[in-house]
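User: Before I run my own analysis I want an independent prediction to cross-check against. Here's the chain; please return only the structure tokens and, at the end, one sentence I can use as a sanity check.
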Amino acid sequence: MPEERIDLHSHTTASDGSLTPTELVALARESGLRAVAISDHDTVDGVAEALAAGEKVGMEVVPGVELSTDLRGVTVHVLGYYLDIDNPTLKEKLDWAKGVRAQRNDKIVARFNELGIEMTLDEVRAEAGSDVVGRPHFAAVLVNKGVVEKYQDAFDIYLDRAGKAYIPKFRFTPEESVGLIKQAGGLPVLAHPGEYSKWSYMALDDAIADLCDLGLVGLEVLYTKHNPSQTAIYMDIACRRGLLPTGGSDFHGKTKPHIKLGYGTGDLAVPYRWLSALKKKAGR
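Assistant: Structure tokens:
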């Protein structure tokens, strides 16, 4: 009998996902998952709703977050699991980051107008359905206006790092990311190591060693974009560094329609025993 599967990497409307926390939990149950983690970008605003929804439908929900981090000049993401979402220091820092993000959104709107593409922040908020605005919502506005045909075109031409309307995003330092998660009682985990293509294997291993010195406890070994060879490499690093393996789809909903919650592009299968090890580490 196959082991029950989980998904420890998903996003809701609290950041740049298209499903509300309640809708995501319902989808997790419909998809046959035993547990799902809510890991929105730089916010825990959707966690309380997801936990309540999980209790109603009998779905195990893991409180989480995904913090954008600048490590050695590369943007990396640090996931945090089982952190106290009401921790005052965590809330204060994330609220501050939200303010900085709002300023960035104003600058992106101004940049589009400078490029001759009429846009207002209200239009982008309407697409997001809330004040939580991210680049996917800008992309949707561009598609709706007929400026580009596809979401990916919006990123390639305007919103990615080399894009015409790109504005740098605030990022925590490695010490801040790992420290915030730890002081809130959580477990810091490096997300999708395969995404950091600027690093060689040795450079990645060295960077992970730096994070281990700060208190990293896990590595996202299984991920939608990891191929079997990468998965084997990251499992080897996790074993050598004494890190717990984790995994997730990085589900966003309609902005990444090819990624299915709990299944990635079809063959992702994160075992529940990995979550059991995380819970033991967290004292749950």
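Sanity check: The first helix runs from residue 21 to 30.
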